[in-house]
Amino acid sequence: MKFQIGKTYNTRSVCDSNCVISVTIEKRPDKTVTCKVDGKIKTFRVKPNHNGEEFFKPWGDYSMAPIMTARV
Question: Which phi-psi region, left, alpha or beta, contains residue 19 (left: φ > 0; alpha: ψ -120 to 50)?
């Protein structure tokens, strides 16, 4: 599965299930996505997971970082 322009994707924080992180994809070149995160436009490199779905980490790469997957 791949991220699609215009769609909104959500995930929850590992530490607080009431904290929902939402991003709307604005640009979609081959290896990156550009979206608005915390009020700022940012670009992230996407990677495939073991199921072939794309993912990225909108808050950085640390042990309990939220993971945004292309699954709606």
Answer: beta
**Is 3 a member of any domain?**
no
Instruction: Give the tens place of pLDDT for each residue, 12-60.
Output: 988 898 999 999 999 999 899 999 888 899 999 999 988 889 999 999 8
Element (H or E) spanning 44, and its range?
strand 40-45
- Report yes or no on 2 lying in a domain: no
- How far from the centroid of its chain's Cα atoms is residue 22's Cα? 8
Residue 33 lies in a domain: yes
Domain residues for the domain of 21 are 8-69
